[in-house]
Design goal:
Layout (H helix, E strand, L loop, with lengths): L3 H19 L3 H8 L3 H15 L19 E4 L5 E4 L4 H15 L1
Antiparallel strand pairs: 1-2
Helix pairs in contact: 1-3
Amino acid sequence: MPTLATDQTQQLFSLIEAFPLSGLSLADFCQQAGISPAKFYYWQRKARQAAAPPPAFVALSLEPQPTALPLEVIYPNGVRIQLPGPQLSLLRSLVTLLDACSA
């Protein structure tokens, strides 16, 4: 069931739509409609906002950015392992392999 507020809103939106067809000045139109020019402009802005399409969804594609410093492990025998970032699973495999070789 429509409420009083929505009925009044629709009436004011109808007034806004009728103004360009009236051929009257804004002051004369508002005087005949029984509203102030400020109220007219307020409801004109509301009508434009209601008619405007909602902002469109914008798809973004993000490229991965390097966020970590390179990781380096140096063994006492001089062997160095350098990785571009914290790739823990790869590091674990390399350390296990090197420990097995040196044993």
